[in-house]
Amino acid sequence: MNLRHVLKETADGFRRAWGSCLLSILTIAFFLSLLGFIALVSANIDHFKQTLNDRLQLQVFISGTLDDQQIAALSQRISRISGVAKVSFVSREMAAEEFQKEFGRELFAALEENPLPSSFVVRLGITGEDEGRIKQIAARIEEEAGVDEVVYHFQTLFTLQRYARLAATTSWILLLFVTLGSLFVVSNNIRLVISARKQIISTMRLVGATPGFIRSPLILEGTLQGAAGALLAGLALYFVDRLLAQLLPGLLHLPPESLIVLLLLGCFLGFLGSLLAIKRYL
Amino acid sequence: MVELQSVRVTYANGEGIDQITFSVAPGEMVFLVGPSGAGKSTVLKTIYMDKQPAEGHVVVGDYNSLFIRKSEVPFLRRKLGIVFQDFRLFADRDVFDNVAFTLEVIGARQKEIKRRVLRALADVGLSHKARKMPDELSGGEQQRVAIARAIVNEPLLLLADEPTGNLDPETAAGIMDVLLRINTRGTSILMATHNYDMVQRYRGRIIKINNGRLVA
Fold it and tell me: Which residues, at least 6 apart from A211, have a Cβ–Cβ distance to it below 8 Å?
């Protein structure tokens, strides 16, 4: 393979159809930026979800009439419920201590007696993925004799779950569109190059050029278009990332590896697009 | 060196060639003469294996149409030089680069390319126009460039398909002189033409073809 020839023909291909080539690069850049942005949003939702998952617990308030033996028996019954990982008892005194730590002694001292009930803190052995299952466990615990109330604050988590699912679905649909769209624009561009070079290609064949010799500049051109699109997308995502970091501190950033993945994806799409055009039109 | 044995090629419209048998020996000059549509180009196509015979076989050097693999066809064509009536030059390259292209295809080194291209251009009398673009040349000069491109790789056989068809008689005579000079140096030439009067003026074996068959 003559490298000089491949580079020369590739540059020639860009020169001949620079308009459609630029359009192809910009389209790939747009698609990949969109994909990268959704990936960034997904990663942040996942991260936030994980943080909330770590705090996934129910507070079970129990009747003040239960004696130690009944409390121990209730604790055991709750432990045996499927999905419950750990049950910790919080006595009225411990709850009061916790309250004082958070809100100060003065406020507590103003009360004549400790109004706080005993409770169990129930950690769940499941993730927040399953909203229905969490509600089921809470309802099951609430059925136990001696339980006054089960409290949980998972609404944010449940809402996030929905957004995460939406983001994941959107990402997959978008990936499909990105793939099909990029393949279409690249292969269309290479088709134009092939069409413009039809006579040259026919003469190349007559003087003994191998298929590889004819195809390699076209494949390189498609791959470079994908790479250029990915680089532009990477640049756009970098600026969006910086902007978001200023507006919403604490967000996850795009890891540098993701830019490599983006570049590889761009190259792959460009490569595949040109290969499709070659298979079909050459 | 090149041999066609009972070759038949049929196109969808029923036309084609049939029972074509002849050979070209090393250093020989052969004219394939016949009217337009007689099957001359099809005969040449079977030699550079653009068309596979439905019957019979073609042998070019070590390659036989019965056994050649598709991937071997480019290598067979490197042993041939092909010249067409419409020149088929690359309009976006100058004369030097047009001729150099044949050597780029085979991966020759730059130094070697330069040496051989200059020699081929000297053979066709165009050394002084190496940096001209094809559209700056006359028809005869463009055909000389095409001949230089065909001989630069020192082919076993030069196939010329109506090389003078687009040229006036005087320019055509100039092209014939170039071809005969190349032949004198040992390159076999098979030239297809409809101009029977012209080829009679030159030395060389004449094979006549009409309606796809050789005629006595």
Answer: B74
In chain B, what residues touch A205 (CB-CB under 8 Å)? 74, 77
Contact A206 B88 (CB under 8 A): yes
Report pLDDT for A211. Answer: 92
Average pLDDT over residues A35-61: 79
Residues B93 and B117: beta-carbon distance below 8 Å: no
Taking Cα atoms as reference points, which of B114, B92, B108 lies closest to residue A203? Answer: B92
Confidence class for position A98, pLDDT limits 50, 70, 90 = confident
Are A217 and A261 contacting, i.e. CB atoms less than 8 angstroms apart?
Answer: no
Q: Is residue A216 within 8 Å of residue A259, measured between CB atoms?
A: no
The answer to whether B5 and B21 have CB atoms below 8 angstroms apart is yes
Given an 8 Å threshold on Cβ–Cβ distance, is A208 in contact with B106?
yes
ipTM: 0.87
**Burial grade of B13 (CB within 10 A; 0-12, 13-18, 19 or more):** exposed
Pairing of strands B29-33, B188-193: parallel
Contact B77 A203 (CB under 8 A): no
Q: What is the DSSP string of A13-63?
A: HHHHTHHHHHHHHHHHHHHHHHHHHHHHHHHHHHHHHHHHHHT-EEEEEE-
Q: Residue B99 corresponds to which amino acid?
A: V
Cβ neighbours of A202 in B, within 8 Å: 88
Provide the 3-class DSSP secondary structure of residue A79: helix
Determine the Cα–Cα distance for residues A177 and B35; give it in Å rounded to an integer.
57
Q: Which residues of chain A are within 8 Å of residue B44 when distances are taken between CB atoms?
A: none
Q: Which residues of A touch B90 (CB under 8 A)?
A: 200, 203
Contact A208, B74 (CB under 8 A): yes
Closest by alpha carbon to B206, among B28, B61, B48, B57?
Answer: B28
Q: What is the mean pLDDT of chain A?
A: 84
Paired tokens of A6: 């491949």
Chain B: nearest CA to A28, how far in angstroms? 30
What CA–CA distances, in Å, run from A107 to A174, A190, A230?
Answer: 55, 76, 59
- pLDDT grade, residue A5 (50/70/90)? confident
To the question of pTM greater than 0.80 for the whole model, the response is no
CA angle A131, A133, A136 (to 5 degrees): 115
